[in-house]
# Entry
Amino acid sequence: MASPLFSLDQRSLFDYIERMFGSTLKEYRNKAGIGLRDFAGRVGISPGYLSDLENEKVAPPSEKHILEMARALGIEKDLLLKAAEKVDPEVSEYVAHEPRAADFLRMAKEQEYGNGDWEKLRQLARIAGLGKKEEEKK
Amino acid sequence: MNVRWLPKDTILKSASALLEGYEKFVGHPIHPPIPVEDIIERYLGLNLSFEDLEAMLGMEDVLGATFVTPKRICINKRLLEEKNEGRTVFTCAHEAGHWVLHRHYVGQAQRSTQFSEAIVCRTLNSKHPAIAAGEEVPGFRRLKNG
# Structure
């Protein structure tokens, strides 16, 4: 699975920016065949607010609501989080409790890591046997 | 705007044909409550939204509006606040009816303003029942009371 923080996958940056939260949400809701009022009820928001969100009249909702929406639609939470330019709460919580992770990300930002760098890093981590999974194998 | 009068039977047939088409589209028979919003969004391919229509159109007592060229149906947000589900659903279906039966009457003329191709539906007790095309909202045309 790709990292939820930095994976821009194969799309160009332009496409990525063009894909706003509202239109993304509407597309997945329509795909799921769930009506506006029905969906609003399922995720605990008002239909008027949902309509405003879909038409990009208001800023994307909180992470909590976004996760709720992804669950109701049965889709990967990253699809909506990315469109809203929000970070998975699990990830931000991890970074908040692991200052070295924040330091590392700051360095990556300063060094302007690109997609290739992240992929290389993932491979290096695997080769170096970092983390829990590798230890268990030993 | 001159709209051809349709006998009830013709309207009924049109509604039945729409439902039949939708059943084929979703691949199973449907029963009440009819998923009007899904018919509008997925089957008719229209953009459905809940709006402050009075502010948007600058007139009172608007229930819903159908914009032909942007393929858009707007329902007054206030209907949701009133928790009047029946009226919300009915207005959705009513606007879908305009799309199916009347969209061809609109849009042959000018396409200059945002509301030039709107069919706006208002309550019968509307205080301003007689806004004519081009008067208060330039280029706007009104079909009838909703």
User: Anything to note?
Assistant: Chain A touches chain B at residues 30, 33-38, 46-48, 51-52, 54-55 (CB under 8 Å). The two ends of chain A are 23 Å apart (CA to CA). The longest helix of chain A spans residues 115-128.
